[in-house]
Amino acid sequence: MKQNHSKKINLMGLSRKELEDFFVSIEERPFRATQIIKWIHQRGVSDVSQMTDLSKVLRQKLEETCEVKVPEVLYEKSSKDGTKKWVIKVGEKDLVEMVLIPEKNRATLCVSSQVGCAVDCSFCATGKQGFSRNLDLDEIIGQVWVAANSFGLPREPNSRHITNVVMMGMGEPLLNFEPVVNAMDLMTDDHAYGLSKRKVTLSTSGIVPKIDDLSKVSDVALTISLHAPNDKLRNELVPINKKYPIQELLDSVKRYVDSCDDKRITTIEYILIDGINDEMAHAEELAELLRQLPCKINLIPFNAFEGSDYLKPSGNRVKRFQKYLQGEGYVTTIRSTRGDDIMAACGQLVGQVNDKTRRKERALKNQIKTKAI
Ligand code: SAH
Ligand code: SF4
């Protein structure tokens, strides 16, 4: 069991199983785990002394040996369109971001799984930043905790809340397998965040053996970041394709779908980059390729970021691509860009924000550096 530098056990960072084991180890009944999960994740309480259905003696014991370490929010920012972004500090010097996208009847939280990313897709700002480190369970589920509290405390049963989580922030979730699976288990745990498994989505660039591993322990929704209809082009855009080429990837998705106990339609993400992968020939090849898989297609017009030469295609080119795929019978949507005025849109997450706040961020980073010394 992991203890932090203060030697106290961080209850935010324990899975249900680890909490049960912990209580057994201190000669308490395993159902205490449910009580703790409810306090922390359902009610948003981080102070053990407020956990009133635990005896005074147990609370005292927990206060001596445990803590509930909540993420340190460096700042939060709201976009004109209602999108909210938080930057949180993890460890001594790293920053990660999460984004909440409220819509009429739902609120989707986009969660990060790593600091940076080693996959290094050619169009992705996070990839260009390089890989720094994996996030621990407390740092992943802590993002959900912070966003859930933003709807107000105490959390009321029928108030507005997070309805969907997408693992589409910074990082490749399948390269940080165990903490990501444990975090998704808490997201779908009835006593924690209670989300339906269809409303928790893992997006992957295609780590084939890990998709097979996932099918053994989870059946959340799976989204594949395909972005190209053939290996030659995909090798350029998503370099992990050289290791796990398209057909192997699609076969593993079929195995995943078969392992779920309900019928699944996989979402295929396809970023559209002007003149690179958005020609009609690409649309034709894509339609042909995807015949083998029940899927819908989500087109994502490329979001520009500093240092990238790629361009966003015109609205007409995007529409033309969509129309063709729809004509071939595919449900095809275009992802609307949300929060790009605060650099919260897809592919813009690098633990940094726009010019106005960049100075503030630099000051914070310096502060962190000073603290770390
Ligand atoms: N690593 C995982 C999940 C995080 S990336 C994956 O790749 O699936 C989440 C989504 O953002 C992916 O679909 C990715 O293709 C998209 N994305 C990355 N960079 C982008 C950019 N510059 N513009 C638009 N979408 C981008
Ligand atoms: Fe990593 Fe996903 Fe970005 Fe590729 S698109 S570099 S896998 S975060």
Write the layout of secondary structure elements.
Blueprint: E1 9-10, H1 16-25, H2 32-42, H3 56-65, E2 66-67, E3 72-78, E4 84-90, E5 94-102, E6 107-110, E7 114-116, H4 125-128, E8 131-134, H5 137-149, E9 164-167, H6 177-188, E10 200-204, H7 208-217, E11 221-225, H8 231-237, H9 246-259, E12 266-272, H10 280-289, E13 295-301, H11 315-327, E14 332-334, H12 355-372
Parallel strand pairs: 1-2, 6-9, 9-10, 10-11, 11-12, 12-13, 13-14
Antiparallel strand pairs: 3-4, 4-5, 5-6, 7-8
Helix pairs in contact: 1-2, 5-6, 7-9, 10-11
This protein binds S-adenosyl-L-homocysteine and iron/sulfur cluster.
Residues 117, 119-121, 124, 126-127, 171-172, 205, 225 line the site of iron/sulfur cluster (SF4).
CATH-assigned fold name of the largest domain? TIM Barrel
**Distinct compounds present:** S-adenosyl-L-homocysteine, iron/sulfur cluster
Put simply, the count of helices is 12
The CATH level-2 architecture of the largest domain is identified as: Alpha-Beta Barrel
Would you state the CATH class of the largest domain?
Alpha Beta
Overall tally of structural domains = 2
Please estimate the helix content: 25-40%
Main β-sheet, spatial strand arrangement: 3-4-5-6-9-10-11-12-13-14
Q: Spell the H/E element sequence.
A: EHHHEEEEEEHEHEHEHEHHEHEHEH
CATH superfamily of the largest domain: Aldolase class I
Mean of the pLDDT scores?
89
Number of strands: 14
Oligomer: single chain
